[in-house]
Amino acid sequence: MEWKLFADLAEIAGGRAVTVDAEPGDTVGDALDALLDAHPDLRDRVIEDGTVADHINVLRNGRSVRHDDGLDATLEAGDELALFPPVSGGGVGR
Predict the structure, then answer these.
(1) Separation of CA 6 from chain center
(2) Tens-place pLDDT, residues 23-64
(3) Which residues, including other chains, have CB under 8 Å from residue 24's CB and lie 6 or more apart?
(4) Residue 88: pLDDT band by 50, 70, 90 thresholds?
(5) How far apart are CA 50 and CA 17, in angstroms?
(6) How is 70-89 classified by DSSP, letter by letter?
(7) 43: which residues sit within 8 A by CB, 6+ positions away?
(8) Which residues partner with 58 through β-bridges?
(9) Three-class secondary structure of residue 66 per DSSP
């Protein structure tokens, strides 16, 4: 399974696309654990008080897993996983 990482998460992991040892039938949480095991520096940025920090968005197929079964959602072939840190909008400078 592949994670797409954005902003500082990609910098921490050393790339925007990271393949992990997870497959259909595993959960999103399993895939996230595999990502954090492979890139332990991400753990401090993503996990807070033992769970995914409120400001980190975990997406499966472009939809936040908070809207579905959360980290317990079962992965299917072809799923796209992504992690987004908070992003702030930019205004036009004056």
Answers:
(1) 9
(2) 999 999 999 999 999 999 999 999 999 999 999 999 999 999
(3) 74, 75, 76, 77, 79
(4) low
(5) 24
(6) GGGPBP-TT--EEEE-----
(7) 36
(8) 83
(9) helix
Q: Which helix (H) or strand (E) element contains residue 57?
A: strand 57-60
What pLDDT, on a 0 to 100 scale, did the predictor assign at position 74?
A: 95
Q: Is 13 left (phi over 0), alpha (psi -120 to 50) or beta?
A: alpha
Please name the residues in contact with 29: beta carbons below 8 A apart, sequence gap of 6 or more: 70, 71, 72
Distance between CA atoms of residues 73 and 28, nearest Å: 6
Cα radius of gyration (the chain): 13
Confidence of residue 94 (pLDDT cuts 50, 70, 90): very low
The DSSP annotation for 2-48 comes to: EEEE-THHHHHHTSSEEE-S--BTBBHHHHHHHHHHH-GGGHHHHEE
